[in-house]
Every structure is written in structure tokens, then in C-alpha cells.
Amino acid sequence: MISARTVTFPGAAGFGHTLAPLRRGRGDPCFRIPGDGTIWRTSLLSSGPVTARISRAAPEAARCAAWGRGAEQFIEMLPTMLGADDDASDFMPSEPTVAAALRRLPHLRLVRTGQVLEALIPAVIEQRVPGADAFRSWRVLVTKYGTPAPGPAPDGMRVPPSADAWRHIPSWEFHRANVDPGRARTVVNCARRAVSLERLTAVPAAQAREALMSLPGVGVWTAAETAQRAFGDPDAVSVGDYHIPKMIGWTLLGRPVDDAGMLELLEPMRPHRHRVVRLLEASGLAYEPRRGPRLAVQQIHSR
């Protein structure tokens, strides 16, 4: 089954910036950018798996073709996913760098997938480890336990595992993917609550974040990372992130700050604190001094 749709926006359509947070590293089997101006993405919806190819139809329009049993549902969700419902009409920053970022990207829209578990599990895998290591873990697990992408997807693309598949991944397979027992338990426990988690899309984002944090192993960082993608939450701040507080400090003050300092700087921009982070990142105005060599992959050993 193939479905197609064109979404037109009241202004430039920067769908690449909108969808970028969904990419879990260059080798993400669920997200590919082949370099021809298109984005390929897979998802597992309630109606089934889907492969989607999103391209620019005009400066203010995006075109999507989708394959698989979930194609029609994906097409229906497309405008919301690309930020058509993202309301930034009350966002008028006075901070000079943030205002400059908004002038560069006045039509930046926040993604909203409506898929809670699909956003939550990779966020759990990314807890407390360098990004490259988490991306490798995601790639290993999805490649083994996901399913082939329907349609003419680029080689190697996979559909994310179902909640049932996540629940039944053996502990030693998490170990081989370098996911420690604590994160593995959290993944499995979240998958067991998949049905109730998906209902959170119907409640206010702040309330949904609180509900996520009631799950064992899900803290403020994981809840925020999930809310940013699944709910399009413009105010979900990734407190506890290794890089973001430093980036905010260097960009707005010229020196690094901790979480408390970041929250103080972003407070006047509530309820658009996450929007500020995305604007700074996507506009190219985010600044952080070059770091030293990346740490080696942290291997997990049994005791």
C-alpha cells in the first residue's frame, strides 16, 4: 500500500530541522538522509509498519510518500508531525542571541510524533552514556529485533520493534548491545506499559511528563527527551544533560553553567524553553568550545 500527501505551511517549510531530533545517530536504521534532499523514516503505528519518504515540494511545502500497512495513518498524522499545530505566536524573545536565532529561522517548527514508546525507549537507552555509544546500542537492538522496512526503503532500514518484542529481548542481548541491566529493566518495564503510555498524548504535556516520571527508571531528563518528540512540548527542558547547560551558558553568557544556571537563564522564556534550545542549535548560533577526544566506548562487564 502506498499513500501520498503534500502539506503546505504559511511560510518556509524547514522539515529537516523539524525532524532532526528523531535521528539517533548517522547509522540509525529508522532514519536516513541519503543526501538528495529527502528524509526516510520508519515507524510502527497502531495500524502497522510504515516507511515514509519526505521531500520538499515547494519552499513552503513538504511532500510525503508512505508504504506499508501504516501508510494511511502516517499520512494522516503528517501535518502534526511536521509541526503544523506548533503554536509559537506568543514567543517574542528579548534576549539578543535568541532573537537573532529566531530571525534566522522564523518558521522553525517542533516535531510531534504522537508515538510515546517510540520516543521513550531510545531516550532510556541514551541515559548516562555518551551519545555515540547509545546510538550504537539502538542500532544493534533495532537491527536484530525490528522488522524489514516496507516499500523501497534504503538498504538496512528497519521498523522499530513492537512493545512485545522489546519485552522479550533476553538480558544477554541487552548486554551484548552494551545496555546495562538498569536501563534494560527500564526498557522492558516501559514496554509492558505501552498501551497506557500511548494515552498520554491526550493529556497536557506537563501532566504527561509527570506521568512518565512515575515510571521506575524514568527521570526528568528522559521524560523531557520523550515529551519533546512525542508531544512537541516546547517547554520540556533536558535537565541533567551533559552538553545542553554548557551550550546555553557559553552561548548566552560566554561561560559554562550547570543545570541551575541554565534554568535561570531560560526562565524568562517559559513556556518555550525547549524551543530556545532547538532554535540555537538549528540556527548555528549555539556555541560551545571544541571538546577533547571522545571517551572510548564504555564496555559493560558482568560481575
UniProtKB/TrEMBL annotation:
SUPFAM superfamilies: DNA-glycosylase (SSF48150). Signal peptide: none annotated. It is an enzyme of class 3 (hydrolase). PANTHER family: DNA GLYCOSYLASE, DNA-3-METHYLADENINE GLYCOSYLASE. It comes from the Bacteria. It comes from Mycobacterium gastri. One of its GO terms (molecular function) is DNA-3-methyladenine glycosylase activity. One of its GO terms (biological process) is base-excision repair, AP site formation. This is DNA-3-methyladenine glycosylase II. Keywords: DNA damage, DNA repair. Coiled coil: none annotated. It catalyses: Hydrolysis of alkylated DNA, releasing 3-methyladenine, 3-methylguanine, 7-methylguanine and 7-methyladenine.
